[in-house]
Amino acid sequence: MNNIDITEINRVWDDDAVPMLMKYIEIPARSPMFDPDWEAAGHLDAVAELFLGWAQKRDLPGLAVELVRLPGLTPVLVAELPATRSELADSTVVLYGHMDKQPEMLPWSDGLGPWTPVLRGERLYGRGGGDDGYALFAAFLALEALHRAGGDHGRVVVLIEASEESSSVHLGAYLDHLESRIGRPDLVACLDSFCETYDRVWLTTGLRGVAGGVLEIVVAEDSPHSGRASGVLPSAVRILRQLLDRIEDSASGEILIESANVQIPDERVREAVIAAGLFPSLASSFHPVPGLQPMSHDPAEQLLRGTWRPALEVIGIDHIPSVDDGGNVFRSRLRVKLSLRVPPTSDVQAVVTEMFDRLTTDPPYAAHVHFEPGARGPGWNAPPFATWLTDAVSHASAMHFGNPSASCGVGGTIPFMGMLVQRFPDAQFLVVGVLGPESNAHGPDEFLHVPTAKKLTACVAEVLNAHARSLL
User: Fold this and answer.
1) Which pLDDT score, from 0 to 100, does residue 33 have?
2) d(CA 178, CA 183)
3) 69: in domain
């Protein structure tokens, strides 16, 4: 094989992929969890059609691309590309990404907005560019670059779903529906992860699971004057504090749900120590206020806290007025959305069950408390890497980034990985991404670091060729 032509990859990204990504960013294709009327709104379908039209124009011999739609479910883009050699026809590679997006999460900085694509230097701002619209372009442009270089690959299935930000609630049905077309992959490349720095390929070796739901507390049918009811009735806020204390130690952040705590494997501890030596600290990738103390000052422990230890977050509250509108009214009702990140190897269903029991059994003051389990997704712990894969990623990273690859777990959740590892336990998994420092995935001012997307595209091409060479 000739060298992968990074110059041509850069050109196609600049001339073709970036303009299409800007069109994609303009479409408010919120995931179904955040847009119950997604089907009527048509935004997810608009994104799917945009991606379909672009993918169908790719210069790849034998490529077949279509949108698959099951009734009532978000669409999935499926592409199939034959192996470059008959000897590789029985080998299948899956390239995965998603097209749905998180909601707006205001406020954005001046001149920026979730549905307003803005290219400033190396950063393409807007919701979904790095999470995960870029994946479609990286997958197909990697395949084109590999063909131009005369390289090889097995049979390829590209799968771009539209419910990932809703814990892939629709994906399981599609995996069943497409089972014969997907086959039994021996390599799965997921392009929807993080990178701790922009100077190398970061292999993701673990993903936390997520268990969440909506907690509703009612203490009165009306909302009386706070001067009359406070001190007489227990407020919903007080009850919320007590209920949260059942699942989290507010002083230490320790999660009290037994099934949400696991023994961290020794190899993941060693990996965190090595990874932490490559950048100052995980906390430094955010924007804490001056003087804020992180939960740990040890960079390795920060990584473990963000990848292998459970953590609770309140991600939404109803029935709380803004400060400007906050009058003297007793809080008689609260509706709170909880998200509990759990270690890669924990049993998510067991966590949800224990969470339900702790929140609803014997509620304080006999208040009416209801917990509706919501988004949940299994974690994922990477199986051992084959020698060819570690060598290929390290070589590709050195060639295109100028530094060897590194690896660590990440705190996010990609339910697809948990689903796939259960179905295909013998497959190799390449989980990589472009969400690096300050990229703000899910938050205001989210951006795609375009040079990283370009270099990662080249690295994916290198890995696909190395996978083929390992089979010949």
Assistant:
1) 93
2) 8
3) yes
pLDDT in tens, 30-68: 999 999 999 999 999 999 999 999 999 999 999 999 999
Pairwise CA distance, residues 399 & 395, whole Å: 6
The answer to whether the beta carbons of residues 371 and 365 sit under 8 Å apart is no
Sequence-distant (6+) residues with CB within 8 A of 445 are: 108, 109, 112, 125
- Count up the domains in the chain and report the number: 2
- Tokens 């009702």 locate to 333
What pLDDT score does 424 carry? 85
Contact between residue 341 and residue 410 where contact means Cβ atoms under 8 Å apart = no
The gap from C-alpha 427 to its chain's centroid, in whole angstroms, comes to 21
| Residues 203 and 267 grouped into a single domain | no
Cβ atoms < 10 Å from Cβ of 385: 17
Alpha-carbon distances of 191 from 177, 236, 259, 410, 411, rounded to whole Å:
22, 42, 30, 14, 16
Q: Which of 11, 97, 99, 95 is nearest to 50 (CA)?
A: 99
Q: Are strands 447-449 and 123-125 parallel, antiparallel or unpaired?
A: antiparallel
**Cβ within 8 Å of residue 181, ≥6 positions away:** 78, 80, 157
Q: What is the DSSP secondary structure assignment for residue 232, as one 8-state letter?
A: T
Residue 248 has what DSSP assignment?
Answer: B
102 and 198 fall within a common domain: yes
Kindly tell me if the per-residue pLDDT of 329 is higher than 90. yes
Average pLDDT (203-222) is 96
Q: Supply the pTM of this predicted model.
A: 0.90
Range of the domain at 258: 209-271+300-377
pLDDT digits (tens, 9 = 90+) for 370-426: 999 997 889 999 999 999 999 999 999 999 999 999 999 999 988 888 888 888 888
Euclidean distance between CA atoms 329 and 321, whole angstroms: 10
Cβ(339)–Cβ(310) below 8 Å: no
Boundary-marking domain end, from 361, 377, 393:
377
Q: Decide: 468 and 153 in contact? Cβ < 8 Å.
A: yes
Joined tokens for residue 342: 């759990």
